[in-house]
Design goal:
heterodimer; A: mainly alpha; B: 978 residues; mainly alpha; three-stranded mixed beta sheet; 40 helices; 2% strand; elongated
Chain lengths: 110, 978
């Protein structure tokens, strides 16, 4: 399973980097969200035990590792806040320069 | 050298602070101090008291150095040290003594100029830095003050910043001295690393260690570079003449008596540690020799009185540098005498030049003349000082020159070097005689050359300041040998030399070689002076390659190089990103070193016996993520993105991590919603133009992406196969969750109890994201009102209310019902979060989704009318205050911030429904829910219609009376809703 997870995370990472490097700002935003997913998946898989039941004291059996779950839960929410801010900035840039093409925006430096 | 630790070393800190107090006083009272002669006398009290302290301490100073140590950074073993010995005392007396005279003099120089408070402040700042520099007892303290003098000197030179020449001069001075400062810093760090301490005492004691080190030569060159730049040694001397654009009091003080001597002081100080080697001798002697000759030669060409003095200063600095290079007793005797003699005559000359400038309005020696009649006092003072400069008896300068000539004939030097030095010194001395003669004959004697020059005499007391050093030049020359002073000079020279130095002030030492050489120099000088017209004509006829030209070329080259570097900068953000990612990949690969792929061979679990749902969820995620690249329409790509997020959520649910999965689902939906909102706000044309870019294959991006993907795969695989299989922390949480927090959901217990502070910060961050977005969008909307955002309205597509016509009544009814249901669900999540999947985050996002749905169905305007109770700022404040209250209660009841409390049990409420606990955890969940709802609805609000954030201009009738009057009204405006 580790290999499959690793390949999934790596592929997800590659897709998100490719999207971030696209010229269309909307695609960059998509890439940022995907990047967050890849990282969250990684964190979640990094728990020390592979549980069979959720981490509840009322349940018996091999419990999943609760610590990375708590961390990922936090990360999911925070990345949402970050995303909103980034979107706001992308929106302002696209609106200010009247283009959603990152290359055109960069060329406005002169 | 013995070291005495004196507790009342505070006096030196007081001495420095007094000067800075002077800076403070002259700045704060700049409008209150009288702009007449009294100003200098009042402000002069500060350096005078400082001088008094230094003098008192000097008189008490014994054989041993006084050292004061304050622990500074104990982990780095760094102390801030002040050290007071004879060498420090000599310089400190010059700094404070001449400083006092300069302040009094500046009072006359800036007569009736009420804007000069700034000048006094700068000058005092510099004075404090300079005093600190000579009192420093470790390399770090030394360096801080050293840089301080560079910066304050920059301020002084640029004082008349409206003039191009002042700005250029200040830039050049700072460029060169600060550049040398960097070299010095590195050199000093090498020095202390070799010696094992930043302390002077340790460094001086480990001279043999330093000289034997591999780094010796590098260290020597770096330290010397610092000294050469500061003390205007060739080829760095070029900043000094340009620095003459400073007001004359600054020139007299910084550029003759004190700052330029800092380099001399530095090398004299470090002679025991770095000196006594061949490299030291050749480096310092040759540079000093060149500087001496260049200064002497160029000085005679000058027309400006101050420039002439500047070049003669350069020449003298070269002499002093040369002396330090020689490891003989007599050289160090010559050094201290030279330093003091020069400080006396040069400060008097500069002050005199300033008086001439103010009284006549010019410094051009070929326009002045016959000033002996109108300025008899000035004639006397400048006359004495100029003769001292020329090295004529019976003045102190003669002694300095005699001693200097004696060093050149010292038998310990190699013969040809000795010969060369002697010749050079005679030539330089002759040129200096010419310079002194020019000052006297052109300025004071002869006839008036320019009848247009008016004479506006200053009060006679102005001559007091230059008269004192001039009299010292005379007095030290002719008075019977003062034994105590000679011993003090000897002690100062001994600190530098490292052994006893005998100093005597006897002018007449018999008919010896130095005297003969002296006569030769005077003779040659007289001949040159008589023929000076020819000499100057000859100098001017020579090809004029100058160091200044080379400096300008250098600066021009740097400018060109910087333009070149902008060519490398493509300005394309994507290019920068790629470079960063590739660099990061490289760094990670290097630092990781290798990947543990040994597990790859023994993998048993590739047999897909895993939970098939897991595999399917990963597949969905990957396919959907891939689809976001391939789909050309942005809208559908965003939907694919949402699908990918749901795939991740399924994986999380199977993990099994139900809490995370729940949050992931709701957050994924909210993110998709916000993304679509942002998309709809972009103008149609712009969007379709951008969409045409999609689907274009870009090979460099692909390579970067594929490389990073591969690397992440390897890292992940290595990390997952070699992770520890037992957790140190989790068992504690699992065992104690129920007992300590009353929650059976361990993840929830971690979030609201075990790591509650994290969560508090987290919701603060999330709230700030909402507030930040709102502020950002509002700012942009108001700043660029010329581009009002145009919402996208596609006539062919039936849009929901947010951008299109009204939606059907069925949808509207559904939305009306959905809102309360969502709040109900959220309440359940908050109430039972401690035992069931779900928590405050989920609850908050669910409520936000319902709000978003309301926006979607009813449109922005109507939704705002319907949801008047939705006050994001109040919700955020309420949420965060509730957590803080919760934590404070924990502190009050259990003695620990955010510790769990069972409020229900405390208040003995027994009628709660089953499974509901009125605990601090519950309050925390509610707080999180409120803050998340507030922040998320703020995000929706800002992105749904940015144009609504434009503040409508307030008309006259509407304007509030206290408009702009208070900070409160400002914030009220900022947070006004619409």
């Amino acid at each position: 399973m580790e290999l499959l997870i690793a390949i999934t995370i790596g592929t997800l990472f590659a897709i998100s980097i490719y999207q971030i490097l696209q010229r269309n700002v909307i695609r960059s935003a998509i890439g940022i969200i995907l990047l967050g997913s890849a990282i969250n998946l990684f964190l979640l898989s990094a728990g020390s035990v592979d549980g069979l039941v959720p981490a509840y004291t009322t349940l018996t059996g091999a419990q999943a590792d609760a610590l990375p779950q708590a961390l990922v839960l936090t990360a999911v929410v925070i990345s949402m806040g970050g995303l909103a801010l980034i979107l706001g900035m992308l929106y302002i840039i696209a609106n200010r320069y009247q283009t959603s093409d990152l290359d055109e925006i960069s060329n406005l430096r002169n | 050298m013995q070291i005495a630790l004196v507790k009342d070393f505070m006096v030196f800190i007081v001495a420095i602070s007094l000067l800075w107090l002077g800076a403070l006083a002259s700045w704060l009272l700049r409008h209150h101090l009288p702009a007449d002669t009294r100003r200098g006398w009042i402000l002069g009290l500060f350096p005078l008291s400082s001088f008094g302290i230094v003098l008192w301490q000097t008189l008490m100073l014994g054989e041993t150095a006084v050292i004061h140590r304050t622990t500074w950074i104990s982990t780095l073993n760094l102390d801030a040290v002040l050290q007071f010995d004879a060498l420090s005392a000599l310089f400190a007396l010059l700094v404070t003594g001449i400083g006092t005279l300069i302040i009094i003099y500046a009072g006359y120089y800036f007569l009736n100029d009420d804007s000069a408070g700034r000048f006094f402040a700068y000058l005092f700042l510099f004075m404090g830095m300079m005093l600190g520099l000579v009192l420093a007892g470790d390399v770090i303290t030394l360096f801080i003050f050293w840089e301080g003098t560079s910066i304050t000197s920059f301020l002084l030179v640029a004082y008349k910043y409206k003039y191009e020449s002042a700005r250029a001069g200040a830039f050049k001075a700072l460029f060169i001295t600060a550049g040398g400062g960097i070299a010095l810093l590195v050199g000093l760090l090498f020095l202390s690393s070799i010696a094992g301490s930043t302390d002077f005492a340790t460094i001086m004691a480990s001279g043999d260690l330093i000289r034997g080190s591999n780094l010796y030569l590098v260290t020597l060159i770096l330290v010397a570079l610092g000294a050469f730049t500061k003390s205007a040694q060739a080829p760095f001397h070029i900043w000094l003449p340009n620095a003459m654009s400073a007001p004359t009091p600054a020139s007299a003080y910084l550029h003759s008596a004190t700052m330029v001597k800092a380099g001399i002081y530095l090398l004299a100080r470090f002679n025991p540690a770095l000196g006594e080697t061949e490299a030291w001798f050749w480096l310092l002697s040759l540079v000093g020799l060149a500087t001496m000759l260049i200064g002497a030669y160029l000085g005679t060409k000058q027309k400006d009185l101050k420039a002439l003095l500047a070049y003669s200063t350069i020449s003298q600095l070269g002499i002093l540098m040369m002396l330090i290079g020689q490891d003989t007793e007599i050289a160090f005797k010559a050094l201290v005498i030279g330093v003091v003699a020069h400080a006396f005559y040069k400060s008097a000359l500069f002050m005199g030049a300033g008086i001439i400038d103010i009284e006549t309005g010019t410094r051009d020696i070929y326009r002045l003349g016959a000033l002996r009649q109108s300025m008899p006092l000035g004639f006397a003072i400048i006359g004495i000082s100029a003769l001292s400069l020329a090295g004529l008896p019976p003045l102190f300068g003669f002694l300095a020159k005699e001693t200097l000539l004696a060093t050149a004939v010292h038998p310990s030097l190699p013969e040809f070097v000795s010969w060369l030095f002697t010749a050079a010194i005679i030539v330089a001395a002759a040129f200096k005689l010419v310079q002194a003669g020019m000052i006297l004959f052109e300025v004071f004697l002869g006839n008036r050359k320019d009848e247009t020059i008016q004479h506006r005499p200053l009060p006679k007391l102005v001559f007091l300041a230059p008269a004192l050093p001039a009299l010292m030049s005379l007095g030290l020359g002719i008075l019977p040998e003062p034994q105590g002073l000679a011993e003090f000079f000897g002690a100062a020279a001994a600190v530098s030399f490292g052994d006893k130095v005998k100093v005597s002030f006897a002018l007449w030492t018999g008919l010896n070689i130095p005297f003969a050489l002296s006569v030769g120099a005077i003779g040659l000088g007289t001949v040159l002076f008589i023929q000076r017209k020819r000499l100057i004509a000859w100098q001017n006829s020579l090809l004029s390659w100058s160091f200044n030209g080379a400096f300008d070329q250098l600066i021009w080259g740097i400018d060109r190089a910087s333009t070149l570097s902008t060519k490398v900068q493509s300005g394309k953000l994507r290019f920068y990103l790629s470079v960063m990612i590739v660099a990061m990949l490289g760094l990670v690969t290097i630092s990781v070193g290798g990947f543990n792929l040994s597990q790859l061979a023994t993998l048993e679990d590739l047999s897909l016996q895993e939970n098939p749902v897991r595999l399917i969820s990963l597949l969905i995620t990957l396919l959907a993520a891939g689809a976001t690249v391939l789909i050309k329409r942005d809208f559908f790509a965003i939907l694919a993105l949402g699908t990918a997020g749901l795939g991740v959520a399924i994986y999380m649910a199977v993990e099994p991590a139900p809490d995370v999965a729940l949050v992931q689902i709701v957050v994924d939906i909210l993110a998709t919603l916000i993304l679509i909102l942002a998309l709809t706000q972009l103008p149609q044309l712009q969007k379709s133009a951008a969409e045409r870019l999609n689907g274009r294959f870009h090979l460099p991006s692909f390579i970067v992406a594929a490389g990073s993907g591969l690397l992440v795969t390897l890292i992940t695989f290595t990390a997952l196969t070699s992770r520890p299989r037992t957790s140190l922390v989790t068992p504690f949480y699992s065992d104690n969750a129920k007992a300590l927090t009353g929650a059976s959901d361990i993840v929830g217990a971690i979030i609201v109890d075990f790591r509650a502070l994290d969560t508090l910060i987290e919701i603060a961050v999330f709230s700030l994201a909402g507030l930040g977005l709102y502020t950002l969008m509002r700012f942009a909307a108001n700043k660029h009102q010329d581009h009002p955002p145009q919402a996208y309205i596609n006539p062919r597509v039936q849009q929901f209310g947010i951008a299109g016509p009204q939606t059907s009544v069925y949808l509207r009814s559904m939305a009306k019902i959905l809102l309360p249901i969502a709040f109900l669900v959220a309440s359940v999540h908050m109430l039972y979060g401690h035992d069931q999947p779900g928590d405050g985050f989920t609850a908050g996002v669910i409520m936000s989704l319902a709000v978003g749905f309301t926006y979607l169905i009813f449109g922005f305007d109507e939704a705002r009318q319907r949801l008047t109770w939705l006050q994001p700022f109040s919700l955020i404040a309420l949420g965060i205050l509730l957590v803080v209250f919760n934590g404070t209660m924990g502190y009050l009841l259990n003695g620990q911030f955010l510790s769990p409390i069972d409020y229900g049990g405390l208040l003995s409420i027994t009628t709660l429904p089953a499974g509901v606990k009125l605990s601090s955890g519950f309050l925390f969940e509610v707080a999180i829910g409120l803050a998340v709802l507030g922040s998320a609805s703020l995000m929706l609000d800002s992105l749904a219609r940015p144009s609504a954030l434009v503040i409508q201009p307030v008309t006259e009738s509407e304007s509030v009376p206290e408009r702009g009057a208070t900070a409160v009204s400002f914030f009220a405006k900022v947070f006004q809703r619409r």
